[in-house]
Specification:
- With 108 residues, the protein is mostly helical.
- It is built from six helices and no strands.
- Helices cover 54% and strands 0% of the residues.
- It is flat and about 45 Å long.
Length: 108
């Protein structure tokens, strides 16, 4: 359908190697990424958007100040999650990896 309407389609089941998704460490459960996985995913999407579209940088723009505040909260949350993940790493390493082709559904 995307091809029919000329809309780009990114199949993240195929592209996961490009953003180094590791199911053992980057998933919160079998359907949702944790902060580590979402960071990788977001960086990949950001790069794609920067490479393919002319988007303005809105950081520091008063009209978008809520975005800056949201980023500050996310950065604090991410630091805590990284710290907790490091403490739990031995347990995480024992989690089985999900098979390739696993359908990853992302919602916002």
């Amino acid at each position: 359908m995307a091809e029919q309407y000329g809309v780009p389609l990114i199949n993240f089941n195929i592209e996961q190697d490009r953003y180094d998704l590791n199911y053992a460490t980057d998933m919160g459960d079998d359907q949702h990424m944790n902060t580590l996985g979402s960071t990788k995913y977001s960086a990949y999407i950001a790069g794609y958007l920067m490479d393919n579209y002319d988007l303005a940088d809105r950081r520091g723009d008063d009209y978008y100040s809520s975005w800056d505040k949201t980023l500050e909260v996310w950065e604090r949350t991410h630091k805590v999650a990284q710290s907790e993940r490091r403490r739990a790493l031995p347990e995480i390493a024992q989690k089985p990896r999900l098979p390739r082709g696993f359908f990853l559904r992302c919602a916002h």
